[in-house]
Give the backbone structure.
Amino acid sequence: MTVQDVDEPGARGAYRTPLSFGTKAFYGAGSIANGAYTALGGLTMFFYSQVVGVPPHIASLAISAVIFIDGFWDPLIGHASDQFRSRIGRRHPFIYLALMLVPAAIFLRWHPPGWDASAMFWYILATGLFVNLAWSLYEVPAGAMAPELAPDYHERTVLLGYRWMLGSLGTALATILIYGVFLRKTPEHPVGQLNADGYGPLSIAITLVFLAAGLTMALGTQKKAAGFHQRPHDPGRTFRDDWRDALVTLTNRNFLVALSAQVIAGLAFGIASGLTLYFQTYLWELKPQDILILALLGIPGPIFGGIIAPRLARRFGKKKAAMGLFLTSVIFGHTPMFLKLVGVLQLNGTPALLWVLASFTFVQTVCAIAGYILASSMIGDIVEEVQVRTGRRAEGLLTTADSLPSKVVNALAALVPGLILTAVAFPTKAQPSEKTMELITQVAWLYLPTVLVLFLASISTWAFYRLDEESHVRNLEAIAGDGN
């Protein structure tokens, strides 16, 4: 192993060389695709149950199955990209393949046929698997590039800050397209979210955003990535050797802590993602333009999060800063719903509601994004710790090894919204009314304590993480000085 394993060929200490603004910007631009894709994906449960008319328990079961199966191939794609060798680097061939497959997958996902409920289960399942597999070919290798681009402890956090900040731009752009263009309120559709004709064109617009952002990232980082470490050709290496190194990687103490924290949080996020649009539509009775305004008011949140994350990490360390940020985010993110349920926040239909929700959401977003940046950076720091022990880099495996357990949990969580909605007999294709307010309130009382307990458990788990700046620097210097 040589210093080339740490950075491009050069003198010892090359890992301290700051990244250029161009490299950070090009890499971060790829996450615009993430933000747009995620915003579109968040509509899936609502679209198939309330717009297409598939019973919620059938839609949620299909979505749950997709998430479960998706967990198996992410680590395989990550490991494959770790081992891949090509003139343009380890990651880019996968990314270019994804850029060809994702558009077809998204088109099929958002142009469903008019089949009966049982047949629609299989359609949701099949198209969901196609979309997720194609997306994994893009996102897994792209995410694995961050530790390679920025080996330095704090520079890595800055790079991930760019990724999260520009990802928020993708989310904002998608939100404008969703609620300001394709699902906006019209005389024919006073609740724009229920406009079936808007979803197909919306999916095409999101696809164009994905292609523009993905190509910008791929072409902008290709030259630098081609010079990164690649696994040396070793004809004597066996599958058993690969398995031994993978086992060392996956049993790393700090990785297991990060894995546990993410799995627990994933359970909460899985429940929340299936119900967010329900709460916006039926609990807060927001119109499409309200959701759009709320999203636009929250745009600066991720930008501030990306700015404060490196600063808090330098002052308090990544772990303490992340735990404090996550706790603050949970408190501010759920206070409005609690106040609504206990009868304090009764502002539906008034302009003040948007400002209240926007204020709490802004703080929640700033803290959550900053926390995620630090958590991602902490996981990246494990790459060098593993490399010291095995002599091999495993960014792809480390950044996806949590996929299977996390997505098994997320798959179970994806069932919960459908089961809750079915249990309270929430109707499909429903217009906001006193009846839906009564039912969604029942859903909220079940939802709130459940996700709060899960989020607090996840935050507490990070206390067992042990890597800090000093130990990370020792690992980098050991790698740079190892001539074996």
Notes: The mean pLDDT is 83. Residues 108 and 127 are 6 Å apart (CA to CA). The first helix runs from residue 21 to 41.
